[in-house]
């Protein structure tokens, strides 16, 4: 009968067991490290999320410029979806001389609008005028009064057929407008009407 060197095999078995335990421990530690890395949120991602939240909060507010026959003309912040009557309330309400019949109180407001409330007896169609303020370089939504046809001019709130004809007649008689302010030289266009039209027009 053969005899096996028990002591020798016991040493081998113990060595294998120890090696296996070491490998298991190393794998477990490495796995835990990966989990910690995954659970950590990079600082840049946190900043990005904060910025998005701030932008979402800002998107809930619109700013309008209220002019004309209101108690306290000025720039006011309102919630997105607000109507014209809310802007007028913010501005202290109508004055006694306001032409209330000319105002659509249910009109929905948009950011950067100019709201103009005309007075009683003011030029027909003078307001209210609401428009998006433009930078000097933003021409997409403004009318070039030196090139505008009658149809183009009629798209401007406050300009009816008679005023459109007067603008074209003035242009034909005197040449191109040098500045938008020159529009006040046209018969029927006073300072208040011009103030409402100014954000909507250009000469170049």
TrEMBL record:
The chain crosses the membrane at residues 9-29. GO terms for biological process: DNA repair; protein secretion by the type II secretion system. It comes from Shouchella clausii (strain KSM-K16) (Alkalihalobacillus clausii). PANTHER family: ENDONUCLEASE/EXONUCLEASE/PHOSPHATASE FAMILY DOMAIN-CONTAINING PROTEIN 1, ENDONUCLEASE_EXONUCLEASE_PHOSPHATASE FAMILY DOMAIN-CONTAINING PROTEIN 1. GO terms for cellular component: type II protein secretion system complex. Gene3D superfamilies: 3.10.20.600, AF1531-like domain. Residues 151-170, 181-200 form the Helix-hairpin-helix DNA-binding motif class domain. The keyword Transmembrane applies. This is Late competence protein ComEA. The lineage of its organism: Bacteria, Bacillati, Bacillota, Bacilli, Bacillales. SMART domains: HhH1 (SM00278). It holds the Pfam family HHH_3. GO terms for molecular function: DNA binding.
């Amino acid at each position: 009968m053969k005899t096996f060197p028990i002591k020798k095999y016991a040493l081998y078995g113990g060595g294998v067991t120890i090696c296996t335990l070491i490998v298991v421990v190393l794998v477990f530690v490495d796995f835990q490290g990966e989990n910690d890395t995954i659970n950590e949120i990079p600082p840049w991602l946190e900043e990005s999320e904060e910025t998005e939240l701030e932008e979402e909060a800002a998107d809930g507010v619109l700013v309008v410029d209220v002019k004309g026959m209101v108690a306290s003309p000025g720039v006011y912040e309102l919630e997105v979806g607000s109507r014209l009557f809310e802007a007028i309330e913010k501005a202290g309400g109508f004055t006694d001389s306001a032409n209330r019949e000319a105002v659509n109180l249910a009109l929905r407001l948009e950011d950067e609008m100019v709201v103009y409330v005309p007075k009683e007896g003011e030029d027909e169609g003078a307001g209210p005028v609401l428009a998006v303020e433009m930078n000097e370089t933003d021409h997409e939504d403004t009318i070039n009064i030196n090139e505008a046809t009658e149809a183009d001019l009629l798209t401007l709130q406050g300009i009816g057929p008679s005023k459109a004809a007067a603008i074209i007649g003035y242009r034909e008689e005197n040449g191109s407008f040098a500045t938008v302010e020159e529009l006040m030289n046209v018969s029927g266009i006073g300072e208040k009407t011009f103030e409402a039209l100014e954000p909507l027009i250009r000469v170049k």
